[in-house]
Design goal:
This protein is of the alpha/beta class. The protein has a single domain, classed as TIM Barrel. Helices cover 47% and strands 16% of the residues. It has 16 helices and twelve strands. It has a four-stranded parallel β-sheet. It has a four-stranded parallel β-sheet with strand order 7-8-11-12. A two-stranded antiparallel sheet has the order 1-2. Helix 2 packs across helix 3, helix 6 runs parallel beside helix 7 and helix 8 runs parallel beside helix 9. It is globular, with a radius of gyration of 20 Å. The relative contact order is 0.14. The structure holds zinc ion. Zinc ion (ZN) binds next to strand 3.
């Protein structure tokens, strides 16, 4: 717990947790339809005449978190029927995208890759390209609004194809057509168990041929085979969640032993986009204290901390980090390592990643460390 308390600017001791909102953060795994403001859901539902499970924002927020607490991924995903229902018009999508950026910037996020599945926003007649355009316009407005508030944030889009459906080839092409217009990556999302990544082999081949970055949700609801498919069949640069890689780590009197797949991920520095609160909600981890993220970090995996769905988990990146500090004994150094790891594995080009690390992240953490010594 040596780093759990540090010194404030006035020389008084403040908790590490209180510093977290001000530290620069990098977010690689955040769903647009999992981060809608509850008040916005209420307002947009009113506009389109959608009946909600609760009428006011506070009750609705509670409903989202409680429903998402179901303990399995399938029930958890049902809450998205409500959020995607209010994201079918260009102006609504644009608003949700703008607010997401403003909210992340307010939480100290300096770079985010926000993902969504364009195919889930076509019910009111938008084309796939209309959806991407609306989100891009919203992100640009959000970046400008954050700048007016004195905050700098950069945002990229990751387009998801739904893994249980068959539009991945189209979505892969859509991603490539928009690679110069804010789309930085491709993902497959939705129910994992029973829907292998290899089903989308042709999309992944198209993307690999075009040297386009891919991340794949894997090792959340299904195990090692799914992670293996993500990194081999799908050629993923990152793994979405990947928490079940811990099943390939055993411990005996000689210490921890890694299986071949665990070695593969650790040796190749393939980052895991871990989402602690979300994993506890879906039953992929028992608690924050028992979440494999801490053990994986100590074992030297490329670990990053993410929100997944801020609305359904009632969370923010600051909250995820605070929980790790308070419930799993993480230090300021742990937070710096995962932040630098996230920045180093964004889908930005190399020089942009290291500009972020050298000019934004390292100086801020150095200042936070310095504060402690002024005590
Ligand atoms: Zn996710």
């Amino acid at each position: 717990m040596s780093d759990a308390r540090t010194a404030g600017d006035d020389g008084g001791v403040v908790s590490l947790a209180s510093l977290i909102p001000r530290l620069p953060k990098v977010l690689l795994h955040d769903h647009l339809d999992g981060g809608v403001r509850p008040a916005t859901v209420v307002e947009l539902a009113g506009e389109i005449g959608l009946e909600l499970p609760a009428d006011d924002a506070e009750q609705l927020e509670r409903w989202f978190v409680e429903s998402a607490d179901a303990g399995n991924l399938v029930d958890y995903l049902k809450t998205f029927d409500v959020t995607t229902a209010v994201m079918q018009r260009a102006d609504h999508l644009q608003r949700v995208a703008r607010e997401a950026v403003v909210d992340l910037a307010a939480d100290g996020v300096v770079y985010a890759e926000i993902r969504y599945a364009p195919e889930q926003h076509l019910r009111e007649g938008l084309s796939l390209q209309d959806v991407v355009d609306a989100v891009r316009a919203g992100f640009a407005e959000g970046v400008a609004e954050a700048a007016e508030q004195g905050r700098t944030i950069r945002v990229g889009q990751i387009l998801c194809a739904m893994r249980h459906l068959d539009r991945s080839d189209e979505i892969a092409r859509l991603a490539l057509e928009n690679r110069e217009a804010g789309v930085v990556g491709f993902d497959i999302a939705g129910p994992e168990d029973g829907f292998p990544a290899s089903k989308h082999a042709s999309a992944f081949a198209t993307l690999a041929d075009a040297n386009f970055p891919v991340t794949v949700h894997a090792g959340e609801a299904a195990g090692l085979e799914s992670i293996s498919e993500a990194v081999h069949a799908a050629m993923a640069c990152r793994v979405g969640h990947g928490v079940r890689i811990i099943d390939d780590v055993t411990a005996d009197e000689l210490g921890d032993r890694l299986g071949l797949l665990a070695h593969w991920l650790r040796d190749r520095r393939i980052p895991l986009e871990l989402c602690p609160s979300s994993n506890v909600q879906t039953g992929a981890a028992a608690s924050i204290a028992a979440h494999p993220i801490t053990r994986l970090r100590r074992l030297g995996f490329s670990v990053t901390v993410n929100t997944d769905n801020r609305l359904q988990s009632g969370t923010s990146l600051s909250r995820e980090m605070t929980r790790l500090v308070q419930e799993a004994d993480w230090s300021l150094q742990d937070l710096e390592v995962v932040t630098v790891t996230a920045a180093a594995h964004t889908f930005l080009h190399h020089e942009d990643r290291f500009q972020l690390i050298d000019q934004v992240i390292r100086p801020a953490f150095a200042a936070a460390r310095g504060g402690r010594h002024r005590a």
